[in-house]
């Protein structure tokens, strides 16, 4: 009897472990890595930076803006998670910016610098992310349970 309870408990935990990741919401964050140098060479230490997305390569108004007040820079290299900082002003979320515009350019400005770095960098897709376009073209009801491979859902 005790052994059945333990097996039932383990089965329940395994089932939750399989279900929870499938139902968890997807956060929209983007990893960005850059190189930062000043007049003396690669920067070391922590800096604040503001990241902006524009729907034009030059000029225009940002469609999204986010500040990160503490970014570690080692030998000029920094890494930041966009979508995890403090959104400035009345801009929407990173997800809204990414899904509302066909083309976007990233602008980076170091705190204390009067001008942002130039030129802006165009955002492009990761290789397998392009495959997600197929999902956007599937008509509602276009895939039925009969069409799925056994044990795939």
Supply the number of helical segments: 3
Overall shape? elongated
- Rg on CA atoms, Å: 22 Å
Which structural class do you get from the secondary structure elements? alpha+beta
Helix content: 10-25%
Poorly predicted spans = 4-24
Query: First CA to last CA: what distance?
Result: 32 Å
Beta-strand share of residues: 25-35%
Oligomeric form = single chain
Major sheet attributes:
7 strands, antiparallel
Beta-strand segment tally: 9
Give the topology.
Layout: H1 2-23, E1 30-35, E2 37-38, E3 41-42, E4 45-54, E5 64-74, E6 77-82, E7 86-87, H2 94-100, E8 105-110, E9 121-122, H3 132-136
Antiparallel strand pairs: 1-6, 2-3, 4-5, 4-8, 5-6, 5-7, 8-9
Structural notes for this entry:
The chain is an alpha+beta fold and 153 residues long. 22% of the residues lie in helices and 31% in strands. The chain contains three helices and nine strands. It has helices spanning 2-23, 94-100, 132-136, and strands at 30-35, 37-38, 41-42, 45-54, 64-74, 77-82, 86-87, 105-110, 121-122. Strands 1, 4, 5, 6, 7, 8 and 9 form a seven-stranded antiparallel beta sheet that branches. It has a two-stranded antiparallel ribbon with strand order 2-3. Strand 5 and strand 6 form a beta hairpin.
């Amino acid at each position: 009897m005790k052994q059945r309870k333990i097996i039932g408990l383990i089965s329940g935990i395994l089932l939750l472990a399989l279900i929870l990741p499938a139902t968890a919401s997807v956060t929209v964050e983007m990893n960005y890595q850059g190189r930062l140098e000043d007049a003396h060479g690669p920067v070391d230490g922590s800096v604040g930076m503001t990241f902006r997305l524009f729907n034009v390569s030059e000029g225009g108004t940002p469609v999204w803006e986010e500040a990160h007040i503490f970014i570690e820079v080692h030998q000029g290299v920094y890494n930041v998670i966009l979508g995890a900082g403090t959104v400035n002003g009345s801009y929407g979320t990173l997800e809204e910016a990414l899904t509302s515009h066909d083309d976007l350019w990233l602008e980076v400005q170091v705190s204390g610098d009067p001008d942002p770095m130039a030129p802006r960098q165009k955002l492009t897709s990761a290789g397998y992310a392009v495959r997600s376009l197929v999902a956007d073209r599937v008509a509602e009801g276009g895939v039925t349970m009969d069409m799925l491979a056994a044990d795939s859902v």
